[in-house]
Input
Amino acid sequence: MDHQACNDTTPARKAPQAAIGQVLIEALPYIRKFEGKTFVIKYGGSAMKDECLKNSFAQNVTLLRKVGINVVLVHGGGDAITKTAEKMGIKSTFVHGKRVTDSDMITIVQMTLAGKVNQDIVRLISEHGGKAVGVSGLDADTIQALPCHNAETLGLVGEVAAINTAYIDLLCNAGLIPVIAPIGFDDEGHVYNINADDAASSIAIALKAEKLIYVSDVAGIQAHDAILRTISKTQAADFIEQHVITGGMIPKVISAFQTLDGGVGKIHLIDGKCIHSILLEIFTHEGVGTQFIAEQGNDDNQ
Output
């Protein structure tokens, strides 16, 4: 810092300095509250593609870890899988938004998710001063899977059967950030491609996480031309019945409340296209996304 700048007391400088100071002070009680807690973050969408957003995300995650919060990342990578498959002459097919995964495709999923995508995230966090470790769901039996209910159509697409938290806990206790590729396996050794949202939810429940944060391409739950800062289970049911919440948002909302029922403290849906959205959601009174709570009345932003 240029200390001479501190002697500049012009109104133009004092105003932004005061604003920055207020933001830092506002963050303090939240930092105290969440020290030693575990946040599971599902990382996907534009935040994984745009260089500026990728760097912002890595900075946010590193800061969370530096202030004593255990951070566990679960990432997607569907676009990267599709591009790799194209290069290898393999066509990607989807049914109801899920990738049909045969033996050739699961090899590409492993190679891409647990390889380049995973290691690029680890490298980026390291560049910003964090200490991350790439983890496949195959490592230390972390994600145990079963075939999905329509395996005849989707092939090697799996559902989470169990999460072994021992390895994740070991890494967090060492001050590291686990970066988990959502791949699992069953008792017979078959490897499965697992939806990243589902994997993040299961991991958050197994870790008894304080928060599960979905970093996506939507600003939150929209109702009546406004983003809801807080939504309870009762409100969500009403909005679904009234067709305020529709389409692909319905399963996301249902999944969020199932995760809450599983013992996770709060769920947050935030826009990864917003710079520093994680910090703004967690460390400010207003937040920037939608938080899901079990009952109305527990509606403080954090």
Remarks:
- Residues 103-127 form the longest helix (25 residues).
- Confidence is low (pLDDT under 50) at residues 1-10.
